[in-house]
Amino acid sequence: MSNRTNLLVLFAAFSTAAFAIDGVTLINQSTVVAAGGFPYVITQPGSYKLAGNLTATSTTAISITAPYVTLDLNGFLIFCTTCSGVPGIVSTKPYTSISNGVVSGFGGAVTSTSYGIYLMGNGSSVDRVKLYNNGIGIYATGRLSVTNTVADSNQVGIDCQSAITVTGSQLTNNPVAGVIMIAGSITGNTFDNNGTVNSNPLGNYPGGVVTSSGTITNNVFTNIGNGGLGYGVYAYGALSIVVGENSFLNNRADWSGAVKSMGNNVCSGISSSLC
User: Fold this and answer.
1) Please, how many CA atoms are within 13 Å of residue 17, restricted to the half-sphere of its CB?
2) Whole-Å CA distances, 236 to 66, 113, 211, 213, 224
3) CB-based contacts of 250-257 (< 8 A; 24+ apart in sequence)
4) What is the pLDDT of residue 239?
5) How far apart are CA 56 and CA 105, in angstroms?
6) Residue 13 to residue 154: CA distance in whole angstroms
7) Stretch 196-202: mean pLDDT, rounded?
């Protein structure tokens, strides 16, 4: 065997071994087209990473049908042209993790499917993702963790129909609501210019946080409801909403409903029993 052949064999073996060790499937526009077009369907657990921007037209970009999938957007953008009522990333299974990128353009109105990210399983997480110009930035039916994420200029930033934790995130310029949730913990976030419409098409009032129970601490709420009927915190269902150590600044109203104050809230621009 020649030296050149030996080198080719060694290179092929090294390449195969490196891929096996890395274990990450790369996705870009070309691989999507080669796989049959959008939506790109992930059917096996594992790690997946974008290697370029994805632009879908009138359809979902990525569909996840396996549990335990980690999707690293790798700083790239998933975008949709001429989309109405179409979710961008859909996961029907539990334990989906999505991180580090941008999802935009999936539905400009609040409809049953106009979601940037749609998560149906429990135990999912979103970290360091920017969601803008979607109907609802993130919609989840199971337990969800959101960290270090920006939801800007959607109709609703995040809507979770189960327990959720949101930390270190920015919910801005979402006219219906920053976060809608059944229960959970909202800690260390910034809410600005949410709840600026006069009605919530999903029910209840618009606002920064719209919830039936949960703990809301160490957040900043500014310009909530200006020009609309939104509240900094709108509590429906009269269950257990605890609010403490937040700053409420220049809002139309800081809260409505059954709220228990832990104290140490700062209120400015309107009188509030939270302070």
Assistant:
1) 6
2) 35, 24, 6, 8, 17
3) 250/222, 250/223, 250/226, 251/208, 251/221, 251/222, 251/223, 251/224, 251/225, 251/226, 252/195, 252/224, 252/225, 252/226, 252/228, 253/224, 253/225, 254/221, 255/231, 256/205, 256/231, 257/233
4) 62
5) 10
6) 48
7) 88
pTM of the model: 0.90
Q: How far apart are CA 179 and CA 177, in angstroms?
A: 6
Q: Domains along the chain?
A: 24-268 (2.160.20.10)
Closest to 137 measured CA to CA, from 92, 164, 161, 105: 105
* Statement: residue 191 has pLDDT above 90: yes
The region of weakest confidence among 186-195, 240-249, 259-268 is: 259-268
Inter-CA distances, 260 with 11, 149, 221, 239, 267, Å: 65, 27, 17, 10, 15
Instruction: Count Cβ atoms within 10 A of the Cβ of residue 122 and give its class: 0-12 exposed, 13-18 middle, 19 or more buried.
Output: middle
Q: Which of 103-112, 173-182, 196-205 has the lowest mean pLDDT?
A: 103-112
Burial code (b: 16+ CB inside 10 Å, e: under 16) for 212-242 equals bbbbbbebbbbbbbeebbbbbbbbbeeeebe
Which residues lie closer than 8 Å to 118 by C-beta, 6 or more apart? 87, 88, 89, 90, 91, 139, 140
Structure confidence by residue, pLDDT tens digits, 69-121:
999 999 999 999 888 788 999 999 999 999 999 999 998 777 777 999 999 99
